[in-house]
Predict the structure of NAD-dependent alcohol dehydrogenase.
Amino acid sequence: MNIIDKKTPKMKAIIWTKYGGPEGLQLQSIDKPIPKENEILIKIHATTVSAGDCEMRSLKLAMWMRPLIRLIIGVRKPKRIKILGQELAGEIEAVGKDVIQFKEGDLVMATNGFNFGGYAEYICIPDNRENAVIVKKPANMTFEEAAAIPLGGFNALHFIKQGKIQEGSKVLIIGAGGSIGTVGIQLAKYYGGEVTAIDSTEKLAMLKSIGADHVIDYTHENFTNLGKTYDVIFDIVGKNSFSKCIKSLAETGIYLFANPTLFRTIRAKRLSKKTRKRAIGGTVDYTSKDLVYLKDLVEAGKLKTVIDRTYALEDIIEAHKYVESGQKKGNVVIKIRK
């Protein structure tokens, strides 16, 4: 009997070996994935390091979430998820026989949500099912720029739409200098808002460059002491007093909080019973409809991504350290292919 030795194709990937510091991320050679009948094999050109990636890796999450994450992913070390990275852009190399929306050679941007997998040369993603979302890459964006659209875009769009912003609405965005805030500013301006953006000193020039009408340096000023009110307050970081944020709302204003806690959620429900003000939190759905909407805005010249730094895949540890430093302006991108 002749046995033909067919070597399994390999790829480079960053393997998440343990909970804790970024040193637990290791560059390894592993088997290249093979797409199932409903899956798309994407040759990844770029991905990002998000705050969510860092929080998952380190388990710097709410206390009640930590044991739950360990039960789902692995008690002592990560087992079910080995590769982090939630968003990406690349080229479709192959498709399963049940895939009808895409074909080999299509240039795409995508998110695999909390199934992760972006820190690798290849990934298999279901065809817009099971919380995975794939759309064609904007024609006027590089892979690096497109990779940074999904997460910040989904979160910003979800909340900004609920703010019911109209021409002349006064909008305050707290924590505006990250991936969500930079998209939030542009969306609020697109809908006609007058935007005040809050972040640290070194981010203020960037915030103005993408459309913020006014900026506040939180290291020198507390917006709650300025005596101004806003139609919409979009609080991305959740570090300000709930009651003081509500006091800074106009009579029928809307407070949007992107990091819902049990305390804020309870107070949000009580608020509408006592006043005409509203507070809205909740989770964000990832849909192809929303990603196509964001793509159309990009191609119309109404939306762009802000990229602070770009790292090679092998420099993932340094990228994680930088994101955790809190200095990130917009997005940190991992360029996988030259």
Notes: Residues 150-162 form the longest helix (13 residues). The longest strand covers residues 39-49.
